[in-house]
């Protein structure tokens, strides 16, 4: 009904599937530009709905609710890749959906994602598809130990991942397959984990953000350091890979790409996310345009400026009760940029907010968030 080159100007309504913190920060950017925002999420008073014009409380595959959001919106986007693709297909004749469904199809399924990378001569770890006990035994015989078994769909922040370091681990993994789709990946030795955000609009204008160095704890991102402490060649390699992926995906919007940096300074693509990414939060304070504004501009058909980094930055995720520590100490730290997501329930490993500090010295910035170490 509406062409992909449609220009959606402020005062129109953007519908967002998902009400978490990414949706919240998308909504804040969109509202600051003059757009109206609606949220579809099953959680009442979700993070995103607290800053939006309205929320439809429903599951993501509730077709009636999706139709309602489509009827109230001029454009639909999403804040995470595990939304129901079949439901989205059914509203494409009612409302503009700028992001291609192949973005979701590829990035929401680890085998399709790895196949996409491999088939486009992009650096990817050795992997094998697993759907049965015999598949796993065959995959282990090809990849060996150590390796890691991951579900093809649904897993994040370390969920649904099984380390396989020996025969005992393999026998344990055999009992947990449960007729699900998995991939077995070679566990590579790497020096750092880094990531980059790339933005592309429907005029094929592509911009990349600075490379972030990421430190994880228990498979959850803890700290991002920007720019990443790597040599210039690594920064350039990451940028070139990101541009190629954006072109091959026919990307519209922002895409996050996570890499392993090997000891020889080569990069391997680990995962992709077709939306703003946790490791790109620093862009709100440190760049001339945030990843969230870039996403809104791209999906609305607007041009995007050349990305510039105005300050070095360190971002720390606030998990669980760390949000209470941050609130209590905020008055003593005017240099903290606190983002409180407004979530009601504190759960194990849940991201409740983040703090960004900006300046000229990475060491000084790390000291400013030392208490969350």
Give short descriptive properties of this protein.
single chain, 373 residues, alpha+beta, Rossmann fold, Dna Ligase, domain 1, D-amino Acid Aminotransferase, Chain A, domain 1, nine-stranded antiparallel beta sheet, four-stranded parallel beta sheet, 17 strands, globular, purine biosynthesis
Summarize the structure.
By secondary structure, this protein is of the alpha+beta class. Helix content is 29%, strand content 27%. It is globular, with a radius of gyration of 20 Å.
**Rg value:** 20 Å
Give the overall average pLDDT.
95
The low-confidence parts are none
Shape: globular
**Domain count:** 3
* Major β-sheet annotation: 9 strands, antiparallel
Give the strand tally: 17
> What structural category do the secondary elements indicate?
alpha+beta
Query: What percent of residues are in strands?
Result: 25-35%
**Total of DSSP H or I helical runs spanning 4+ residues:** 12
In the CATH hierarchy, the architecture of the largest domain is 2-Layer Sandwich
